[in-house]
UniProtKB/TrEMBL annotation:
Its main location: membrane. This is Membrane protein. Belongs to the nicotinamide ribonucleoside (NR) uptake permease (TC 4.B.1) family. It comes from the Bacteria. The chain crosses the membrane at residues 12-34, 46-79, 104-124, 136-162, 174-193. It is found in: Cell membrane. InterPro entries: NMN_transpt_PnuC (IPR006419). Keywords: Cell membrane, Membrane, Transmembrane, Transmembrane helix, Transport.
Length: 213
């Protein structure tokens, strides 16, 4: 898998490697499929994690380990969406707003998780290039994926909060390609959040027995 870490092209003076390009493209597809509430969002998310795991394995163990967590959450999301009984009239999952208890739980988990992961990264510098923002982005991504698996509209807000750190951080560290991709992420997040928000107001409508999905 050494080719994943080789240069694909140069953009704005930045050397873009294959793993970065493929991972970001798959990430955009994942977000677009999530907007459409398609079950395929989870296999694509898993594939994105697998590509990045293959690229990082052997020399960036911390980054590779993070992708294992992402792939595990993607499998959970696939299982959760398949088993959910609340569906819209188009056959896809029905978005909903989280309860106040769920929101408090996710905020507490995000805060505690960020501190714990950042301390771990600080204790073992080889696991991360910048412990605190890296921990924030990683934990925020996991929380967003969990909320998405539960069909919560708030998952878009979690992604937006991740983007607010990810965009300037990538540009500041010279990752122009990733930075521009995060800008596109932000646009997709706003459109997707609006769509899920409106759909959550309609509520699920039970399908008639024997009617096509």
């Amino acid at each position: 898998m050494n080719w994943l870490n080789s240069e694909a092209f140069t953009l704005f003076g930045q050397h873009i490697i294959w793993s970065d390009m493929i991972g970001n493209i798959l990430g955009l597809i994942t977000l677009a499929l999530g907007w459409r509430r398609s079950l395929w969002t989870w296999p694509v998310q898993f594939l994105s994690g697998l590509v990045l795991f293959a690229a990082f394995y052997g020399h960036l163990t911390g980054s590779a380990g993070k992708q294992v967590v992402v792939m595990a959450v993607a499998l959970y999301g696939w299982w959760q969406w398949q088993r959910t009984k609340d569906r819209s009239d188009d056959g896809h999952i029905a978005p909903r707003f989280a309860t106040w208890q769920e929101r408090a739980g996710m905020l507490a988990a995000a805060a505690a998780g960020t501190v714990a992961v950042a301390l771990l990264f600080t204790a073992y510098p080889k696991l991360s290039w910048d412990p605190w923002p890296d921990a924030y982005i990683f934990v925020g991504t996991v929380v967003a994926m969990y909320a998405q698996a539960k069909s919560m509209v708030e998952f878009w807000i979690a992604w937006l909060l991740v983007d607010l750190v990810g965009v300037p951080l990538n540009f500041a560290n010279g990752y122009a390609f990733s930075g521009f991709v995060y800008v596109i992420y932000g646009a997709l997040v706003l459109w997707g959040m609006r769509d899920w928000w409106l759909r959550s107001r309609r509520g699920p409508r039970p399908a008639l027995e024997g009617a096509p999905a």
